[in-house]
């Protein structure tokens, strides 16, 4: 039950919800692209993405000097809830 509460706390942040929406509308967007789109520094974006990735809500894939963000596969989200 504590994991579910923690997940809802992660989702209760407006910036993280906007981030999830941006990732779903632009799969493969870079962290820098997300930061520019949402008007926040790259470091802040990375911190929020790390939380979302820890709960299996997004996938990050490094490619050279960029990190691309994709919507998570369903298995990650289900395992976060279970």
Write the layout of secondary structure elements.
Elements: H1 2-11, H2 14-25, E1 29-30, H3 31-38, H4 42-54, E2 58-63, E3 66-71, H5 74-81
Helix pairs in contact: 3-4
Keywords:
alpha+beta; 82 residues; globular
Summary of the model, kept short:
Helix content is 62%, strand content 17%.
Give a written overview of the molecule.
The protein has five helices and three strands; from the N terminus they run H-H-E-H-H-E-E-H. Helix 3 (31-38) crosses helix 4. Strand 2 and strand 3 (66-71) form a beta hairpin. With 82 residues, the protein is of the alpha+beta class. Strands 1-3-2 form a three-stranded antiparallel β-sheet. The chain is globular and about 40 Å long. The model has no long low-confidence stretch (mean pLDDT 87).
Give the rounded overall mean pLDDT.
87
Please give the share of residues in helix.
55-70%
The ordered H/E elements are HHEHHEEH
Distance between the termini: 9 Å
Q: How would you sum up the major sheet?
A: 3 strands, antiparallel
Strand content: 15-25%
Trace the largest sheet across and list its strands.
Answer: 1-3-2
Number of helices: 5
How big is the Rg?
12 Å
What structural class do you assign from the helix and strand content?
Answer: alpha+beta
* Shape call: globular
Number of strands: 3
**Low-confidence stretches at least 5 residues in length (pLDDT < 50)?**
none
């Amino acid at each position: 039950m504590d994991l579910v509460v923690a997940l809802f706390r992660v989702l209760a942040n407006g910036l993280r919800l906007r981030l999830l929406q941006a990732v779903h509308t632009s799969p493969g967007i870079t962290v820098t692209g997300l930061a520019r789109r949402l008007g926040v520094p790259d470091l802040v974006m990375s911190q929020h993405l790390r939380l979302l990735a820890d709960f299996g809500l997004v996938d990050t894939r490094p490619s050279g000097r960029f990190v691309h963000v994709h919507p998570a596969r369903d298995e990650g989200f289900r395992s976060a809830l279970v």
